[in-house]
Design goal:
2 domains; 8 strands
């Protein structure tokens, strides 16, 4: 029994020593960090986005635009959601979807980028923008045979 009484004391000392190391090692690593050099990182501010949804009627050979205001610098992205006849038939005929700069009064829209687009769930055209007035334009690319109704979504800063 005497041997059993001294044995836990020896084990206790060894466990206490290990426990001290387990406590101090992570603390030392935390305080010293990595030994290899690090490159400085740049932090970018979170950009708050706004989503605008526009709907309209597009005549054969026509063009319509809608204006929106960007509050900061980032990317504006436009998605042509649907194009359908007035009776509700969804069309796959492409129309031209464009993003551009709107005049101060919002009376004109000058295309900056344009693409042929069909109704989709992902953006078809995007543009780097700063704070200011912009526009999204939908134009008959020559394939419409009747008046259509469309919906466009624009996500912008």
């Amino acid at each position: 029994m005497l041997i059993l009484a001294t044995m836990p004391t020896v084990q206790h000392a060894s466990i206490a020593h290990v426990m001290r190391r387990l406590v101090w090692c992570p603390l030392v690593l935390l305080l010293t960090g990595c030994s290899s050099p690090t490159t400085p990182s740049t932090t970018t501010a979170n950009v708050t986005t706004t989503t605008d949804v526009f709907s309209g009627v597009l005549e054969v050979g026509g063009s319509r635009f809608h204006t929106f205001t960007s509050a900061g610098s980032s990317t504006a992205a436009a998605t042509l959601g649907t194009v359908m006849t007035r009776s509700g038939t969804v069309l796959t005929t492409p129309v031209t979807l464009a993003l551009g700069v709107a005049s101060d009064a919002g009376e004109t829209c000058t295309d900056s980028i344009a693409t042929a687009a069909r109704g989709a769930l992902t953006s078809q055209v995007s543009l780097s923008v700063g704070a200011g007035a912009y526009c999204v334009k939908v134009t008959d690319a020559g394939g419409l045979t009747e008046t259509v109704v469309y919906t466009v979504r624009v996500v912008h800063p």
